[in-house]
Amino acid sequence: MNKHLLGLEETSEEEIRQILATAFSFKEVLSRPIPKVPTLRGKTIVNLFFEPSTRTRISFELAEKRLSADTITFSSSGSSVSKGETLRDTARNIEAMKIDMVVLRHNSAGAAHFLARCVDSIIINAGDGQHEHPTQALLDMMTLQERAGDLRGLKVAIIGDILHSRVARSNIHGLKKLGARVAICGPKTLIPREAEQWDIPVFHRLDDAIQWADVLNILRIQLERQKTALFPSLREYASQFGVTRQRLLRAKKDVIIMHPGPINRGIELENDLADSEFSIILDQVTNGVAVRMAVLYLKSGGRLEAEQRS
Amino acid sequence: MNKHLLGLEETSEEEIRQILATAFSFKEVLSRPIPKVPTLRGKTIVNLFFEPSTRTRISFELAEKRLSADTITFSSSGSSVSKGETLRDTARNIEAMKIDMVVLRHNSAGAAHFLARCVDSIIINAGDGQHEHPTQALLDMMTLQERAGDLRGLKVAIIGDILHSRVARSNIHGLKKLGARVAICGPKTLIPREAEQWDIPVFHRLDDAIQWADVLNILRIQLERQKTALFPSLREYASQFGVTRQRLLRAKKDVIIMHPGPINRGIELENDLADSEFSIILDQVTNGVAVRMAVLYLKSGGRLEAEQRS
Amino acid sequence: MNKHLLGLEETSEEEIRQILATAFSFKEVLSRPIPKVPTLRGKTIVNLFFEPSTRTRISFELAEKRLSADTITFSSSGSSVSKGETLRDTARNIEAMKIDMVVLRHNSAGAAHFLARCVDSIIINAGDGQHEHPTQALLDMMTLQERAGDLRGLKVAIIGDILHSRVARSNIHGLKKLGARVAICGPKTLIPREAEQWDIPVFHRLDDAIQWADVLNILRIQLERQKTALFPSLREYASQFGVTRQRLLRAKKDVIIMHPGPINRGIELENDLADSEFSIILDQVTNGVAVRMAVLYLKSGGRLEAEQRS
After folding, report:
1. How far is CA C185 from the centre of its chain?
2. Which residues of B touch A263 (CB under 8 A)?
3. Residue C299: its pLDDT value, please?
4. CA B25 vs CA B204, B290, C55: distances in Å
């Protein structure tokens, strides 16, 4: 097992399966009246969020508190980042304070790898630029397993802005390792060149992706990118790539709908469909806490046996 | 008992009395060497503050920690609110993470009600727009009871910017339910139209309010509103509605002075008077923690009996 | 012993020695598998940071959590400071909430003293304007003791922007009390007038300071001050006052290198030298947590005996 969780590209199938199995067992803990275990008592985890985040940050903090860790959370505003300290110096200082784990979100691809090279603390990547967001992909896979059973042969189409999406990259790596089949779908301007090397189907028409898929993992269109004119207009995007109930009906197809959030309702996903029987979006959120508990637990030296934890 | 605490308009006299009685009993806990009870151990409370706050936020956090809850606090800056997520999606995500209670401050009237309609978690309103701020009114009433005994027949004049004040609205609802008599006093431009339906005296001269009242609850003039020209100038406001020792002497009247803070010293309240024998302003702050403990305790299913808690 | 820790100017030699001895004993606690003691269980500490800080804030929070205190942290953005509340009212409110200790960072010199005068809570100065930063100087002295033994007669040169440095002021007071010899070195525009009263050597050439010193405590050049033209240019500053390995070699001198961080690598200190065998910079960071535990412990009424704490 790797010491850190930097990305799913370098995480083995075995380790992914171990994390998911542990997460299912933590999910049971979370259903208890007091959903808390003393596993990480006395351990200190620093959450360094150099990019805005509500959900991921709360989810990690919750996972840490439910494992009884001591947590310190840091958002970029008001930090000495504004004094120009380098990420490396920040990291080495944190390490000198004997912090056990660092959960890092950063806008530069490779930030978590960089940190892992220069400090001894355990690093958990909570999203680095457009590179990877491994805990998101793990919770996606956990939720799919819960709904669909074994992922082998399951066809998952990732829809939208693949170019800028760390969620897409982590999902592609993880799903392939578990034997799922992955495709991507989006306007040409939002499909990266590297997609050719991924050796997966690329669709430019949403209906084709729906025909092909068992699962649609629909990415958020980042409205702030629209100014760079990668797609003509939001209305145009919604009409071509917005997933609607009518499209599903037309395809005579039952698919599972996923979304990493936050949703632009009415743009990439029809408002009503997000809350429909097809959607497992809220299960993703629930499972996020269990997956993060599993990652923190295993990386801090825990083992899978349930009796270790209670 | 209501599941949530959204406002005092919909809270019964009986429930208000129960909260106050419980708060007095928690006040005793707070005087112990270790002012902490294990009541909410394992419960998770998320404080969502979408408006700036020092005092209310610290007071809630303190109440939560003294009940041994796990707390996660969120201020608007740096959150995915900036990514345009709706309050509803934020709420549903929080709920999916199995959070027991949400303490919400929001600049839209009705935000807490809205949340309560769309999630199962218990919602505590920590101030919604110009609508209600129920825990502030509860701590005001607790502090008045402590100083003046039974509130029945006690005459409380609320002075200042009634138009924009959620504190005024919550106090009016709560005080009337406990049998106090309430009046409001302020320049015509700062008295809302709805005041006619409140069926309470309205004064436009401060001296008249002082003559009438046993208690002056003096609201903060929000300096940032001055640009909308609802009153001529701060100096003018202070000379007409600023409460001073001289005015009280002229009225030959002992009154109790309250203020929800933060005070603009020298504007709505004379600097010296804020710290005088008339003032119970710091008692309000002290009691705020006890009241919030009581609300969190009762809403999470606790009962009044002291033995339940120690 | 003083009730507060406001500055080292008013802290006795005896108290400084007691804090350092306690810090060494806490350093041993920090090397245990579970680096946590129940000493401050049930105590509440509020960290009020009205200036940006990463390291100092994390270091204090960590010290507090390792003593099992309940902590509430406040950064200036989003607080009612923006509503214009005075520091005094903030303080009195905090006191009314029965908070045991306040750790204060503020951009006004004297802020911590002011707070100590108006409230009963114990105040720990975490940096006030250009006045003092006592825990930084204490950790500097602890780290020097660790490396060099008794400080009596040790020659410490503080290099850089003395004018604006609270770190320099606290170090000068503390080091002199422990019998060390202190000098300062920097361009004339960055040496304050009050330096004459400090009765210590003042160097304007770095090579002279290096010749003289056993230890160089190198201050951060605050890049944001460059606009006020107190020194010609960063390049010029670096060439005259930047500490480099070549300069040390030329001086045929082994010196201990310290820096309070964050480092401008390549400006006041050569990149490579910061991580060299001369540097005790990371030890400073490590010891910061132990020193702050010692201060919090002693100020809250703890005694030196190790058996009290375990």
Report:
1. 18
2. 85, 89
3. 97
4. 39, 8, 40
Contact C107, C50 (CB under 8 A): yes
The answer for residues whose C-beta is within 8 angstroms of residue A127's C-beta and 6 or more apart is A51, A53, A56, A105, A106, A133, A136, A166
- Quick one: fold of C13-133+286-308? Rossmann fold (3.40.50)
| CATH classification code of A13-132+288-308 | 3.40.50.1370
DSSP secondary structure of A193-237: TTHHHHT--EESSHHHHHHH-SEEEEPPP-GGGGGG-SSS-HHHH
Spatial distance between the Cα atoms of B89 and B139, rounded to a whole number of angstroms: 32
- CB atoms under 10 Å from CB of C246, counted, come to 10
Please state the three-class secondary structure of C153-184 as a single string: CCEEEEECCCCCCHHHHHHHHHHHHCCCEEEE
Where are the domains positioned within chain A? 13-132+288-308, 134-284
In single-letter form, the type of residue at position C288 comes to G
pTM as predicted:
0.91
DSSP notation for B176-194: HHTT-EEEEE--GGGS-TT
Question: Residue A260: enclosing H or E segment and its boundaries?
Answer: none
Q: What is the maximal distance between C-alpha atoms in chain C?
A: 60
3-state DSSP assignment of residue C68: coil
Q: Looking at chain A, which residue has its C-alpha nearest residue B47?
A: A58
**pLDDT tens readout for residues A142-195:** 999 999 999 999 999 999 999 999 999 999 999 999 999 999 999 999 999 999
For an interface test with C, the pick among A71, A72, A73, A86 (most C C-beta atoms closer than 10 Å) comes out as A72
Count CA atoms within 13 Å of residue A187 on its CB side: 19
Chain C residues lying within 8 Å of B65, measured CB to CB: 44, 70, 72
> How many residues in chain A?
310
Chain B residues with CB under 8 Å of a chain C CB are 30, 33-36, 49, 52-55, 58-59, 61-62, 65-66, 75-77, 223, 261-265, 282-283, 285-286, 288-289
Q: How many Å is the Cα radius of gyration of chain B?
A: 19
Give the pLDDT of residue B278. Answer: 95
Radius of gyration of chain A (CA): 19
CATH of domain C134-284: 3.40.50.1370
**In the sheet where A155-159 sits, what is the strand order?**
A202-203, A181-185, A155-159, A215-218, A256-258
Strands (E), chain B: 44-49, 70-75, 101-106, 122-128, 155-159, 181-185, 202-203, 215-218, 256-258
Low-confidence stretches of chain B (pLDDT beneath 70): 77-85, 224-228, 303-310
For the segment(s) B13-132+286-308, the CATH number from 3.40.50.300, 3.30.750.24, 3.20.20.60, 3.40.50.1370 is: 3.40.50.1370
Average of pLDDT values for C279-287?
97
Q: What is the mean pLDDT of residues C219-233?
A: 76
Token look-up 């920690």 returns: B65
Strand-pair partners of B106: B128
Q: First-to-last CA distance in chain B?
A: 23
**Same topology for domains B13-132+286-308 and B134-284, yes or no?**
yes
**In the β-sheet with C256-258, what is the strand arrangement from edge to edge?**
C202-203, C181-185, C155-159, C215-218, C256-258
Residues with Cβ within 8 Å of A89's Cβ and at least 6 positions away in sequence, in order, are C261, C262, C263, C265
CB contact under 8 A, A46 and C58: yes
Q: CB–CB of C43/C70 below 8 Å?
A: yes
3 state SS of C224: helix
pLDDT tens, residue by residue, A28-81: 999 998 899 999 999 999 999 988 888 899 999 999 999 999 999 987 753 444
pLDDT, tens only, A203-216: 999 999 999 999 99
B205 backbone dihedrals φ, ψ, rounded to 5°: -120, 130
Q: Which two tokens stand for residue C72?
A: 């509430």
| Structure-token match 């990259």, residue found | A169
